[in-house]
Amino acid sequence: MRREFERQGVGAEGAGRFWRLSEINGGFQLCATYPALVGVPAKISDTTLTYAARYRSKSRLPVLSYLHANGASMTRASQPMVGLKQARSVQDEKLVEAILATSEPDGTPPRFKYEREHIIIDARPTTNAVANRAVGAGSENMDHYRRCRKEYLGIDNIHVMRDSLNKLAESLQHAPGAGVVARIQGSKSAWLGHIENILVGARSIVEAIDAGRHVLVHCSDGWDRTAQLTSLAQLCLDPHFRTLAGFATLVEKEWVAFGHQFTLRCGHLGHADRFRVTRASRRRSSSGGDSTSNVSSEPRDEPDPEDPAPPGLDALLQSGTTMFGRFASRALRGVQSRISSAIQAASDNLDDPDDVDPFFTEYPELQPDYMAPDAAATPQRRSNGFRLGRAKHDHETSPVFQQFLDCVFQLWVQHPTMFEFNERFLLDLFYHLHTAQFGTFLANNMKERAALGLAQRTASVWAWVRGRESEYKNPLYQGDASKRAVRVIVPNPKFVQYWSALFAGCDPAFAGECGSSGGSCGSSGVSCGSSSHARDALSLPPSSSSSAVV
Predict the structure, then answer these.
(1) How many CA atoms are closer than 13 Å to the CA of 263, on its beta-carbon side?
(2) Cα 380 to chain centroid, rounded
């Protein structure tokens, strides 16, 4: 991290002198999902950072992600804890204002400059961001952030992306007589639409930073859609990240160090952790019958026909014979349905305090505020019955990093001479993302990796890549000439294509079977025409729905 930020010019002459590297998160005391070293404005003290972190979800305050050569910066964070009462934080506003001032000649915000030229990117749909206020979160109130404007990108959450990939996988598995394009179009998965939407967001960031404007990027918790946007923008802005070594640095910084949850998103935990036993409803009697029965032993209260309940609002509206009454009834139901759906989507992005992370089940001593249990003092809880519930881990799988690789492939196709690596490099990364053979793609954040000792106990995927660099070289790469001619590349969201080598690929373990059926599978899982191998390549851990693919 330090070496990369120094390469970008943090702490050096020019705009870099207005930034510093802070060790306030040493020991992960401030934020458990941030790296120990973070880049912040030089004029902001660690005390201000401590208070600003309390205003952001998971304490993921705005910190430096990339410093461009023209002095513009890209920072990343999580959603602010605004809530229904429109809470604000002076420290958070001061931090954002100091970030915007780093491009000024003396690093001081101008007093009489009110143009909203800088951008706060909220990657979520507007409805989801507004609905999050009901659970204490939300989005920035732009009345308190001068010189900024806000853009919503409308990128859907992890559950929508998982369902989209499920539909795409099912369309490739069925209808063998139809062509691939026809099956994709008939799947209604909108997978390519999601890829296009992410590229639109990355293009907005690239154009803003290239024009000298600062950009703050966040979604809900700042480790899924935010990582996609910040890493794609840096890939377009800096030629260094389009090399093999630079791409490794980019993934380590934006995904590994900043806490993308590889274990949850890729489903690395075993099937034993996919279900857990939870307490049943209190309506069941502790002394009556089979504990697994869904029938309550307690009598239910039957309504008294002679004492009807007072009519509710719906009944009052339905009783009206006027056109207004019928219209108001339909409108109320529609509003209630939309609000319920939005609040449910918002609650999916927040942790349920009653849900136990399977990781902490195996390693309870790593929980925050962990206290050793006292057998003598702990009262024995009596069970009123049990039910088989779905673990939180299953609900959190999603192809977030796979979408990033798909977007990189789209850029690679659009600018074939600007990347040092080839398509096989991206395919091998996707394959080893799910093999769990390398510590790079294990655990959910740096704190977990340090507690598990992954640096000492596992190998890095980048060491494996360095031993095969000749296999990953792009013969069309222009090298230094591309840096002098075109430093910044811009995504073209209208030119998006199906990544056939990934979705029609196969597992290297089935290379012999592929060869017998006429496919052309290699050690990296390149394209194969057999539909059975598409099922093998996409048979990843399922989500809560049947035949789900992550």
Answers:
(1) 19
(2) 39
Instruction: Assign 420 to helix, strand or coil.
Output: coil
CB < 8 Å & 24+ apart, contacts of 182-189: 184/498, 189/164, 189/165
Backbone φ and ψ for 120, nearest 5 degrees, come out as: -105, 115
Per-residue pLDDT of 51-91, as tens digits, reads 999 999 999 999 999 999 999 999 999 999 999 999 999 99
- Render pLDDT for 6-23 as a digit per residue (tens, 0 to 9): 999 998 887 789 999 999
| CB neighbourhood size of 477 (10 A) | 17
Q: Compute and round to an integer the Cα radius of gyration of the chain.
A: 26
Q: Are 137 and 220 in contact (CB under 8 A)?
A: yes
Query: Do the beta carbons of residue 189 and residue 48 sit within 8 Å?
Result: no
E strands, 136-204, in order: 148-152
> Per-residue pLDDT tens for 297-312?
344 444 444 444 444 4
8 A C-beta contact, residue 143 and residue 156: no
Query: What are the residues facing 41 on neighbouring strands?
Result: 19
Q: By C-alpha distance, which of 299, 228, 307 is closest to 265?
A: 228
Q: What are phi and psi of 40, to 5 degrees?
A: -140, 160
Cα angle, residue 25 at apex, residues 9 and 266 outer, rounded to 5°: 90
Question: For residue 354, what are its two tokens?
Answer: 């009653």
Of the candidates 98, 81, 117, the residue with the CA atom closest to the CA atom of residue 40: 98
* Segment 344-401, tens digit of pLDDT: 555 555 544 444 554 455 555 545 455 555 544 444 433 333 333 344 556 789 999 9
Mean pLDDT, the chain, as a whole number?
A: 76
The whole-angstrom distance between residue 436's C-alpha and the CA centroid of its chain comes to: 19
pLDDT at 114: 64
Question: Residue 440, Cβ neighbours under 10 Å: how many?
Answer: 24
Q: What is the pLDDT of residue 169?
A: 83
Higher pLDDT, residue 480 or 494: 494
Residue reference for tokens 């609650």 = 347
pLDDT at 146: 85
What is the Cα–Cα distance from 503 to 399, expressed in whole angstroms? 13
Chain segment 166-198, per-residue pLDDT in tens: 888 887 776 555 555 556 665 678 899 999 999
Catalytic residue IDs: 219
Per the CB < 8 A criterion, the answer to whether 104 and 110 are in contact is: yes
> What letter represents residue 274's amino acid?
R
- Write the secondary structure of 291-338 as one string of H (helix), E (strand) and C (coil): CCCCCCCCCCCCCCCCCCCCCCHHHHHHHCCCHHHHHHHHHHHHHHHH
123 near 155, Cβ under 8 Å?
yes
Crossing angle (nearest 10°) for helices 191-210 and 158-173:
130
The beta strands (E) that lie in 48-191 are given as 63-67, 73-76, 118-122, 148-152
